[in-house]
Design brief:
It is a single chain. It contains four helices and four strands, in the order H-H-E-E-H-E-E-H. It is α+β, with helices and mostly antiparallel strands and about 140 residues long. The strands form two sheets. Strands 1-2 form a two-stranded antiparallel sheet. The chain is globular, with a radius of gyration of 16 Å.
Length: about 140
């Protein structure tokens, strides 16, 4: 795969990461309108990333970048959720009711809309709780309001 280096917004390390990750998960390369997510510059960066590889796995599947749209084999969670519930307002994101890392399903029924700030605090709290726990051990999630 050749990575476009003609002045796009994708940085050197992101290009390197994409080049060493697996094949793209979807060959659909329609115009990925990421502006429904946020009005920040992240939209253009995500659009450029998905144009290079529309979803992929990296680091022995520890990293999973979902494709923009669903395919026969991959769930484009954003696309599926928006078809049912409408556009995601700025400053919000979809988060799993049961976190994926704790066995939550990659399914739109496991997603809800949350303020970005609140969702990041909750995910950071969970990450701090489980960071030193070996795989397969039980955990008790402690939530903070």
């Amino acid at each position: 795969m050749t990575i476009n280096t003609d002045g796009g917004t994708m940085g050197f390390y992101v290009k390197k990461l994409v080049s060493i990750c697996g094949d793209e998960l979807s060959t659909k390369h329609a115009n990925h309108n990421c502006s429904v997510l946020t009005s920040s510059s992240v939209c253009e960066q995500l659009k450029e990333l998905l144009a290079v590889k529309n979803g992929f796995y990296g680091f022995e599947s520890a990293l999973h970048v979902f494709p923009y749209e669903s395919t026969d084999e991959e769930i484009g969670l954003l696309d599926s959720w928006q078809k049912l519930h409408g556009a995601i307002p700025p400053g919000h994101r979809l988060v799993p009711k049961i976190p994926f890392v704790t066995g939550g399903e990659y399914d739109i029924e496991n997603l809800y809309l949350e303020c970005t700030y609140k969702s990041l605090i909750a995910r950071a709290n969970l990450a701090l709780q489980i960071r030193d726990i070996p795989n397969g051990n039980s955990i008790k999630m402690i939530t903070q309001e």
